[in-house]
Amino acid sequence: MAERPVYIPDYRSELLVETRFVEFTWHPGMAPSQKMKSVEELHHAAVEVGVCCHPLEVSSKSAEELGIKLSAFNLSVKTEKQGREFTVETAFQASKVFQNGGPFKELLYGSSIAAKKDPRLKQSGSLIRFEFFGASWSLEPKTAFYDWLYLNALRKNKWAIEQLNDYDSFTDIEFNPKKSINCQAYSVALFKSLNGRGLLDDALESQDSFLEVVGGRPMNNANENTLVQSCLI
Questions:
Q1: Is residue 123 over pLDDT 50?
Q2: What is the bridge-based pairing of β-strands 169-171 and 55-57?
Q3: pLDDT tens digit string along 188-221?
Q4: In what order do the strands lie in the sheet with 127-132?
Q5: 186: closest CA among 59, 34, 65?
Q6: Closest C-alpha among 212, 207, 169, 215 to residue 188
Q7: Burial class, 20, CB count within 10 angstroms (exposed 0-12 / middle 13-18 / buried 19+)
Q8: Which InterPro entries would you find in this protein's record (predicted)?
Q9: What residues does 56 pair with on adjacent strands?
Q10: CA nearest to 96, candidates 123, 131, 124
């Protein structure tokens, strides 16, 4: 058995994203087919216990094309001036500043896999901040910079936004909150929450406005391991 978070947009309370941990049968192995089986088990368990009604896996292991395209490795944007394309993943990795190096800006326009595996990311000391197109971001709030990157990219991919209306919750089978911090499924839930509240444009107007709208609220209830009692409509 394993346990993974399910992220649910919250449109009413002070909370922006509700986090519910679900226990399910894990299918071991690195093969994509095994990961997809685990996703199916997670979604079945989440619906069965009333956490959600229509979950979407946001990763390359998703059974839905939308979920695959929304992976940070695939979700991309083009620069307005040069028309060059980059993904959320390459932007995130290319923005890291370490004690002994970075940012490694040349990673921005390469492949997501190459950016993720660049050895300098592990050989340059402790991460101290992010720098992206002249703007500096601190490490707190912990997921702020990643979420800001992802939400800006998603907003530019309007084809995806309408399709998100078919789903009430989001998962990422690869994400383990005990080992990682940033999660693309959480970012999608945050996007839906802000968009549903009419706060998205205000939040993405600038870095300061994002930190004011998002950073001033509890990011999620990840420390509460309770279940939602009814499905969201």
A1: yes
A2: parallel
A3: 999 999 999 999 999 999 999 999 999 877 666 6
A4: 96-98, 127-132, 135-137
A5: 59
A6: 169
A7: buried
A8: NADAR-DarT1
A9: 170
A10: 131
Structure confidence by residue, pLDDT tens digits, 1-56: 999 999 999 999 999 999 999 999 999 998 999 999 999 999 999 999 999 999 99
Tell me the residue type at 174: E
Output the pLDDT for position 183.
97
Contact 16, 144 (CB under 8 A): no
**In one letter, which amino acid is 73?**
F
Question: 147, 127, 130, 169: which is closest to 219 by C-alpha?
Answer: 147
Q: How confident is the prediction for the chain on average, in pLDDT?
A: 92
User: Cα-flanking dihedrals φ and ψ of residue 3, to 5°?
Assistant: -135, 130
DSSP assignment letter at 179 = T
Name the residue among 217, 190, 138 with its Cα closest to residue 17.
190
Q: End-to-end alpha-carbon separation of the chain, Å?
A: 29
Q: Say how many C-beta atoms besides its own lie within 10 A of residue 125's C-beta.
A: 11
